[in-house]
Amino acid sequence: MSFINNFLVNLCGVTLPQTSVELQQAEGGATRFYGRPWTMSQRKELFRREQKWGLNAYLYAPKDDYKHRMYWRDLYSPEEAEQLMTLISAARERDVEFIYAISPGLDITFSNPKELAALKRKLSQVCGLGCRSFALLFDDIETEMCPADKEAFSSFAEAQVSVTNELFLHLDEPHTFLFCPTDYCAAFCTPSVPQSAYLKTVGEKLNAGIDILWTGPKVVSQHISVASIEEVSAVLRRPPVIWDNIHANDYDPQRLFLGPFKNRPTELLPKLRGVLTNPNCEFEPNFVAIHTLATWCSYGQKDVSMDDQGSDYNPHEALRLALSDWLVEFGRADQPDGAGGGRSKRQASDEEPMQTDGYTPGPRDNPLYTAEPLTLDDLTLLSELFYLPYEHGATAVLMLQELQWLRREDSERVRNTMRADTGKEEWRRRAEKFDDMCAAVVQMFNRLSNVPNRIILYDLYNYICDIKSGVTMAKAYVKTLGGQSPHSALALTDDPEPWGFRGGLSGEFQRMLPSHGIRDLFRSPPATRVYTIRPCIPRDQPEVLKIFKEMQIETQQKVELVGDRLVEGHVTPSQSCSLILDDAAGVCGYAFALSDAKTFQNSKHFLDFTSLSSLQYPETMLQDFPSVMAIQIHSRVPDHSTARRLIEQMLSALRDSGSKGVFSEFRSNDRRMFDFLKTLDVFQVLKVDGLPTNLVIMGTKL
């Protein structure tokens, strides 16, 4: 269930008893999105873990099985049926309920009897393979009905319910039958959950023996409250089965989620028919996701209303237990099976390959490299670096805070030499602290790289390699701020190595979109507004001048700037170089630019402004920074990433015009904008001789 891939593969969760006031043994399982399919041995290992941890449901909906969704009408071949039967039997051996899902919503004609017959034939075949539990999925499909269905049904919901009820009866009312609605979260419901005509039809007409899947307030829900579940239960006329995407990572290939199952109170347990989890695409990292889910589910057998403060689920404690158990797995000498992607065990004598052939280094030789063992602290750090969709772990937040402070205080030292002396010692101390945290990440990477269990390592490697590279770059940047020279490969120059700019084409697209950065997990203060960047039009001029005059009052300096003439409309900006930043209240920022400041400076038009006659930028500066930009962001805009998007869009326009650099002018006491831009780390302060002392010039190469 995903905006990006629209697919599910392998599902694990918990299904609570259909009747009974007392909660019995929780059932559970796991799920996986589109991506490299899990192997048969991985699925069998999942069943073993489920049984060990008290979970016992598995929803089969893999996208590598084309006959689950795209070719849902086709029966399985004898070879395919044998594989599926093997999987069903393996689940049964571990007391795991195997739930077969089919997803016909891409192209089914609900009113055609042949379509219903094809569904019955397909599910009857699977039933003959030993499966007794089923799911019908209508997630992530178009809601427009074909003409034939419009004649037969009054609504899309009625069409889905009709087919689902028919299948449920055809299968002789199986113990477990799940229905995934098209509106599977509150965000999809129009106008709201209680007033959704779609959900009302499903609740009223779907057979009472069929359970309904629900992801919560959103597709990926940060919190799922008791009140929200009570609300949807009233409309559906039954408790839902939560299909939780808190650990799903298929929408961002650079993110992995190793934090605990959290922000779901255990008071939900008696109000649900079940909980299913969509974990990470990679199999091995899901140890934490499923282990902590199992711990959460175990509170279904406890009296959570007791006054004992230690009786409720603690996600931090659950995480510690999961990581402790996972550490044992890292020590197992497992290797990928080259033939089938499964596991092969090394012999005990092979656990550490011998590379020395009896070699003993002499007293003046380099000592032999010795791999350090992985520790629980290393895994805790790994989890905190790759935590959850809406939050970083504690160490990650601390590293970001320290880097932000080091950047900000370095700006203060540049601007205020007196403060540079008084704050030097604290800056040095905190720079060393940040360096130590970066070193711990590299140490964790090195230890992970040498674990005996290569299967787990290979699932983690791209992620840990990426974070190691990121912190190494940040470490080099802090050294640069402190006046040291990092390794040449890490130097922050105008022509960096490719690892100095990340994201590829996808990153370029994202940086151009209005939403880029507004949901960064680390932001101070939080950004909750929606901003729009658009070309300036004539009716914007009064609002632009209002912001301009407020800035002049704020700075109270009488220095005239070239950029002022752009803002006031006396000079026309270059093509595509006049941008407005809007929020709900109106214009909240602007950027105007001239691609060729030198030509303007030498023009009679420039000399007509007597106040600018003494402001002559040197030829050497204009050769490297030929363009000038005037930018101002209103103080009501707290989000630095919003300013970054505005600036980057302007820089892109100047780059397209052929410019190789741009400068911007600021009054020296415009402290707010100076801090704002320094934090963005897009511009650097330029040293330009012969200019007024109350003028600061910042620039960047294009």
Task: Give an account of the 3D structure.
With 702 residues, the protein is an alpha/beta fold. It is 40% helix and 12% strand. It is built from 22 helices and 17 strands. It has helices at residues 40-53, 78-93, 113-128, 147-152, 156-170, 197-205, 226-236, 286-298, 315-330, 376-385, 394-415, 417-422, 424-449, 454-481, 504-512, 541-555, 562-568, 597-601, 604-607, 619-624, 640-656, 671-680; strands spanning 11-15, 57-60, 97-102, 133-137, 177-180, 211-214, 241-244, 274-277, 334-336, 343-345, 532-535, 578-583, 586-594, 627-633, 661-667, 684-686, 695-701. The protein has an 8-stranded mixed barrel with strand order 1-2-3-4-5-6-7-8. It has a 7-stranded mixed sheet with strand order 11-12-13-14-15-17-16, with helices on both faces. A two-stranded antiparallel sheet has the order 9-10. Strand 9 and strand 10 form a beta hairpin. Helix 10 (376-385) packs across helix 13 (424-449) and helix 11 (394-415) packs antiparallel against helix 13 (424-449). The longest helix has 28 residues, at 454-481. The radius of gyration is 31 Å and the shape is globular.
